[in-house]
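User: Let's play a game. I give you a shape written as tokens, and you guess the letters that built it. Ready? Here's round one.
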């Protein structure tokens, strides 16, 4: 009787545990799934097959919010209830124990055979992953952007990188913004929203512990969605310390 109770309690505990999310930065190298939206503005990706990095899991048909980007801007113009199956490239991010998708490329998938769920070989998280050069190239734009370029909306072909710029983290009811530091120059202030990722979570926690505003130095991808610019952090550190959160 005791054994039966123990097994039942163990099964109940396992069922109540929330799945561990995929690690931040996990590369998406051609994964098939459906892209759905209830309002035409906010989109989610639902993979046809379970995705695992050896520890974290995104279950088949579970949804991950797609972050704003120029690639989503283009995809959203053709995705609908009749055309919702796509093969996507990019990376997963992780923020507050949830996964998000940052898109860099996509292809429509016309004929879909949703596979039956089978037991997958566990992935060793310590095993080196060989990422094709073309996939790596899509993950980080090569064009360097000046802050002046971000005063107006970026076009869908104008993603770029901003390297080693300083500023301050600001929390609003709509999420976190990065206020670029003018560094004494007579220029208009620039403030842009930050996309959800682990680096943002780390620096937000660091700022929360400080009584004073911290100046951060960041390197980031700049992208646009529906006439608004966004930042996807790649690296951030407190400018006066040796702390560094890199991707």
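Assistant: Ready! My guess for every position:
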């Amino acid at each position: 009787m005791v054994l039966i109770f123990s097994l039942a309690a163990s099964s109940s505990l396992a069922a109540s545990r929330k799945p561990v999310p995929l690690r931040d930065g996990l590369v998406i190298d051609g994964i098939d799934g459906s892209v759905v939206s209830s309002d035409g503005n906010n989109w989610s990706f639902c993979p046809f097959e379970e995705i695992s990095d050896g520890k974290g899991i995104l279950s088949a048909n579970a949804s991950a919010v797609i972050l704003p980007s120029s690639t989503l801007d283009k995809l959203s113009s053709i995705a609908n209830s009749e055309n919702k199956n796509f093969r996507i490239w990019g990376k997963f991010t992780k923020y507050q124990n949830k996964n998000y998708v940052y898109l860099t490329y996509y292809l429509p998938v016309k004929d879909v055979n949703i596979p039956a769920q089978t037991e997958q070989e566990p992935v060793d998280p310590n095993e080196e992953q060989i990422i094709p050069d073309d996939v790596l190239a899509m993950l980080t734009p090569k064009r360097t952007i000046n802050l002046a370029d971000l005063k107006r909306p970026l076009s869908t072909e104008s993603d770029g990188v901003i390297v080693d710029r300083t500023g301050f983290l600001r929390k609003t009811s709509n999420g976190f913004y990065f206020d670029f530091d003018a560094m004494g120059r007579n220029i208009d202030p620039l403030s842009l929203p930050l996309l959800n990722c682990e680096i943002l979570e780390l620096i937000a926690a660091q700022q929360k512990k400080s009584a004073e505003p911290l100046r951060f130095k960041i390197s980031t991808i700049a992208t646009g969605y529906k006439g608004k610019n966004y930042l996807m952090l790649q690296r951030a550190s407190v400018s006066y310390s040796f702390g560094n959160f890199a991707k």
